[in-house]
Amino acid sequence: MFTLDARIRDGYLVFPGFLPGSWGVCHLRIVRGERKTLYLASEIRHNPGPSITNAIQGVWRAIQERYCPSDHAVLVEHYSDAAVYGDEWLGSRLAKVRIQDGCPFWQHITGEALATEAGCSVADFTVPHDRLVMPVQAGNKGNREP
Fold it and tell me: Which of 15, 62, 118, 141 has its Cα between 20 and 30 A from that of 77?
């Protein structure tokens, strides 16, 4: 994880999948807003395991174990279609995720509404395209370190 400024940290998160022994990788940006801290989990191209959507409970569990988020933490699922699928027609999608009694619930939200709720700017959680595209080496399309 590296720090962009005092409020923003960037890196990759390895998270458990839903099958025993499975795992996935996502980009994680932590943004400490004035009102809330955002944990922005972004799907990456060539993720070797389950998507962040299919393993969102594992994503949140890995965040809790590693960062011990406060009561003001918000888990946000992020997809950039240009980065993940190479297609820009859907653009970027954000959804706040709440996990209650082991069941996830998603609430789609605009960047502007999320920035207002957290007390930060939209630019704070705009992840550069190159951080969401993991290169695949010829002959190595399986597990790899981010």
Answer: 141
CA distance between the termini of the chain: 11
Distance from C-alpha of 5 to C-alpha of 31, rounded to nearest angstrom:
10
Distance of alpha carbon 82 from alpha carbon 58, whole angstroms: 25
CB 121 within 8 A of CB 36: no
Residues found in the chain: 146
CA dihedral angle for residue 6, residue 10, residue 14, residue 15, rounded to 10 degrees: 70
Instruction: Give the DSSP per-residue string, 77-114.
Output: EEEEHHHHTS--SS-EEEEEEEEETTEEEEEE--HHHH
Q: Global pTM?
A: 0.86
